[in-house]
Fold this sequence. Notes:
Elements: H1 2-26, H2 28-44, E1 72-75, E2 90-93, E3 102-104, E4 109-112, E5 121-125, E6 136-141, E7 163-165, E8 170-173, E9 188-195, E10 211-212, H3 215-218
Antiparallel strand pairs: 1-2, 2-9, 3-8, 4-5, 4-7, 5-6, 6-9, 9-10
Amino acid sequence: MVKKKALLVFVPLAALAGGLIFFWLFGPAARTMPRNRMVMDFIRRPQDHPDWVIPAGQRCGDAPFQMPARGFIGYLWDDSWRPGHRHQGVDIFGGTPPGETPVFAAYDGYLTRLPDWKSSLIIRIPSDPLMPGRQIWTYYTHLASPEGDSYIDAAFPPGTNEVFVKAGTLLGYMGNYSGTPGKPTGVHLHFSIVLDDGKGKFRNELEITNTLDPSPYFNLPLNAHSNRGAVPLCEGRP
């Protein structure tokens, strides 16, 4: 009986351990590990990597979206750094102190800032440039200090609803607000493309199934399933 009970405990633990090993060696975490090292290196020594940086406003070839901020695209769509986690967008690291790197609209649309949003904005695009007729939303976040002091431009106070902005409009500045005061992230912009719920509202951005891979919108090799350890740059650049 003792052996049977021990076996009942051991088998699930072994399965869990095997799953974790697979996750770290072959799953999304394995694809992300090389970028973890690159992100940390860029945060510590951005001056050593000017060739990793994409300028704000750059449009890669015939891409519909322009780059919303100057910086290094460190984390990609579908990256992962813990079991069960899948990154819902791209993270652009500025290599500067919080509140210095400007963030711009990537595409024309209608901007909303919910009343309780300290660091986030969302822009409605009535017709997806890659699938005309489908409504999508572009989401920008981490635009605040570690304590939650907003870096969003004064033109867009809390409660802003459906204000039209052109591509290239200043939205605010990169910050490192994590949502928990006093526990900052690295200074970066998190950018997501969020699907519409079919009723004119945006879906929950925290679920990757509610988002789209930004790769084709920027014409960049951003697919997290390839180019492991590569620096995402405009097509045609080394």
